[in-house]
UniProtKB/TrEMBL annotation:
Pfam families associated with the record: Glycos_transf_1
SUPFAM superfamilies in the cross-refs: UDP-Glycosyltransferase/glycogen phosphorylase
Domain of life: Bacteria
Record's protein name: Glycosyltransferase family 4 protein
Domain Glycosyl transferase family intervals: 177-316
High-level lineage: Bacteria, Bacillati, Bacillota, Bacilli, Bacillales
Coiled-coil boundaries: none
Length: 344
C-alpha cells in the first residue's frame, strides 16, 4: 500500500516517536511511505521512509497519489481531507492526543474530529473520549516501545538508590504534565531521604531553550542528564530503581512503559491512557492527582525493597507485551480493512 504522512515535526516526544516508528515499520514491510515534513519541523529519529520537506500548510500539490493519507495532529487534518477529496487517497486520522482538552482553540480542535469517519486512537481511554464526544467508533492501535529499551542488567547493587523522571519544555502551557507538582514531590522525597539520588532526564534541545528547565538545573537539587539518543536514554533507565511520571492526562504514556522494560519500578499518576498497562500494586503504584501522594508512593518503594522488586519483575513482563511490531501490524490490518470495506 502507498501511505502519505503529513507531519509537523519529528522531534523527540511520544506522539512523534510513534509516527516515526509506524512509518518505519510499514516501510520495512514493503509499503511505499512518503512523509511530508513541515519545513519548520526537525528530524530527530532515523527514518526509513521517503521524506519530502514542504511548506508548513501542506499545500495540495505536495501530496503524491496514495492509497491512504494519514493525518495526526489537528492542524494536519484539513490539508489531508482536501487531498482525499481530490482523489489522492483515503483519509485516516491517527491521533495520539485529544487536543480539545488541553489546547485553547476548542472550536477548531473539537470539530477536527468531525472530518473523517476513519479514526485510529492509541488507548482505550482515548477511544472512550472520542466515541462519547463525537459518536464515532474509533479503532485502538496500541502503542509499542522500541526494542532498544530493554533490561541490560547493569544496575548497581551498591551506592544510592536512583530515582528518575523526565522533564520537558514547559513554556507555552502543557499543564497536564504537572511538572511543577513533580518537582515539588521530588523535593519532599529528597528532604525525607537525602541518601537517594534524584535524576532528571531532559532532551538536550529543550534544556537549551527553556528558561524554566535551566532554573531548575541551576538549583543543583537534582542530577540532570541530557540523553542524545535512545541508547543513552536506555542506559539511564537501566540505572534507575524508581521511575516517576506525573501527567494527569495522556492518551498514552510511553515513558512509563520504557522504564518498566528497562527494569525500573514505576510510580505514576492516573492519566487515562496509561491505565492500559499500569496496574496498581501489580506492576506499579498509581495514585490520583487528587490524592496528592506521589511522594508517599515513591517513599513506600524506597522503604520496601521487596515490593519494589515485585513491581520491577511484573512491570518488565508487562512491557514485553507492548511491541512496535504489534503496533505496526495492527495499523496495517485496520488500514487494509478500511480500504477493503470501501472496495479499494
Amino acid at each position: 500500500m502507498r501511505f502519505t504522512f503529513p507531519i509537523v515535526t519529528l522531534s523527540k516526544g511520544g506522539a512523534q516517536r510513534m509516527l516515526a516508528e509506524v512509518a518505519n515499520g510499514l516501510a520495512e514491510k514493503g509499503h511505499d511511505i512518503t512523509i511530508l515534513l513541515s519545513k519548520s519541523g526537525v528530524i530527530e529519529f532515523d527514518m526509513k521512509a521517503t521524506i519530502k520537506v514542504v511548506p508548513d500548510h501542506f499545500p495540495i500539490d505536495s501530496f503524491p497519489p496514495a492509497d491512504v493519507i494519514v493525518s495526526n495532529f489537528y492542524t494536519t487534518v484539513p490539508p489531508c481531507q482536501l487531498a482525499a477529496e481530490k482523489g489522492l487517497g483515503t483519509h485516516i486520522r491517527y491521533t495520539h492526543c485529544y487536543e480539545p482538552i488541553f489546547m485553547p482553540n476548542q472550536a477548531e480542535t473539537f470539530l477536527s474530529y468531525h472530518v473523517t469517519p476513519h479514526l485510529f486512537v492509541v488507548s482505550e481511554a482515548q477511544k472512550k473520549l472520542v466515541d462519547v464526544n463525537h459518536g464515532l467508533n474509533a479503532k485502538v492501535i496500541p502503542n509499542g516501545i522500541n526494542p532498544v529499551f530493554k533490561n541490560l542488567h547493569t544496575k548497581k547493587t551498591n551506592g544510592p538508590l536512583q530515582i528518575s523522571a523526565i522533564v520537558r519544555l514547559s513554556e507555552g502551557g502543557l499543564w497536564h504534565r504537572q511538572q511543577n507538582y513533580l518537582i515539588e514531590q521530588l523535593r519532599i522525597v529528597k528532604l525525607a531521604h537525602p541518601e537517594v539520588q534524584i535524576n532528571l532526564f531532559c532532551p538536550p534541545a529543550e534544556l537549551t531553550i527553556s528558561k524554566s528547565l535551566q532554573e531548575i538545573k541551576m538549583l543543583n537539587e537534582f542530577t540532570f542528564h541530557t540523553p542524545a539518543n535512545d541508547q543513552e536514554l536506555c542506559m539511564l533507565y537501566n540505572q534507575t530503581d524508581i521511575f516517576v511520571t506525573s501527567s494527569i492526562f495522556e492518551s498514552s504514556l510511553l515513558t512509563g512503559l520504557e522504564a518498566m522494560a528497562c527494569g525500573a519500578a514505576l510510580v505514576t499518576t492516573y492519566a487515562g491512557g496509561n491505565m492500559d498497562y499500569a496496574k496498581h500494586y501489580k506492576n506499579c503504584l498509581v495514585s490520583s492527582r487528587m490524592d496528592n501522594q506521589l511522594s508517599k508512593d515513591i517513599m513506600t518503594l524506597i522503604k520496601d525493597p521487596f515490593l519494589r522488586h515485585y513491581l520491577i519483575v511484573n512491570g518488565e513482563a508487562e512491557a514485553k507485551k507492548w511491541t512496535i511490531q504489534r503496533t505496526v501490524d495492527t495499523f496495517e490490518e485496520k488500514a487494509r480493512e478500511i480500504l477493503t470495506r470501501l472496495g479499494q
